[in-house]
Design goal:
- The protein has nine helices and twelve strands.
- The chain has one domain: Nitrilase/N-carbamoyl-D-aminoacid amidohydrolase (4-Layer Sandwich).
- Helix 6 links the parallel strand 8 and strand 9.
- By secondary structure, it is α/β, with parallel strands linked by helices.
- The longest helix has 17 residues.
- It is globular.
- The strands form two sheets. A six-stranded mixed β-sheet has the order 5-4-3-2-1-12. A six-stranded mixed β-sheet has the order 6-7-8-9-10-11, covered by helices on one side.
Amino acid sequence: MQLTGDLPRFTAAAVQAAPVYLDAAATVEKAVSLIREAAGRGAQLIAFPEVFVPGYPYWNWTMTPVQGSAWYERLYRSAIDVPGPHVDTLRAAAAATGTTVVIGVNERGSHSLGVLYNSVLVIGPDGTLLGVHRKLVPTWAEKLTWTGGDGSSVRVHQTPVGPLGTLACGENTNTLARFSLLAQGELVHVSTYISLPVAPADYDMSEAIAIRTAAHSFEGKLFSVVSCSTISEEMIETLAADDPETAEAMRRPRSALSGIFGPDGRPVTEPLVDEEGIVYAEIDLGRCIQPKQMHDIIGHYNRFDVFRLHHDRTPRGPLEPSPEPPPAPLTGPWQPETGTGNPQDTAG
């Protein structure tokens, strides 16, 4: 996107909330309500957490694969189709409020019963579905649930709030994925996360989110909007009612952080930790100009004769058929072994 004249200035909103667990319709209804609330506060960009619709597979971390298998089926049945009616509802809400909406969903694969993707939808203010990013590499225990995406969805979208890219949770640690977005001109980065209280004891999820968000903002000299889910008591009751140890773990503090970070790597306003709510901040893309003079890693502060990134944007599917061979000429006697010749030549 060629940015000329006045650069976009707008209000961004980072939603920190829990889904209505494993209920896609109710969670989408909650998302629509939050879109209206944020738009009512003047937000033009509204970011939601990772797989907000209809929730995150915490059983991958707390149960054996065999124990979690029935939960996987339950999540699959609760997931959504893209495109589909739930997406249409979200698109209508974006259009009705004139907002750009970024939201994480569990997406059912259309080519195979049972395939799930960790996807992020980018919806424009006219209701257009601008993009669907599928998480490239599910993180650790997540591989029990999600199929990985491909490079076709690692893209920057041209929106009224500026060139916008998105990555899901742990892939914000992927330096090459982040660099590709920067090299495509990204100035607004949306990162989606989940609350992770069941992480190892020495892992502070809220701190990890802040570090990764600040790093990308500072390296790219851009604005980052980070949205993280929370865990409700309803979710704990659903997943750990008979397991006091897991229930206690799921209430662990400092497991979620949402906020908005500037091109200096600092929060524009105080981030929200653990609690449900919406963080608002004013974004002025003009603030990205001067920091680039010092370190522009996609411009003067790099050596592309020394370093080069190849990004394969080819969509990948389970079948890549070879081109059809040209039909053989129908001459001579019919050959059933090869299918050549003219059957009429054998008629008596």
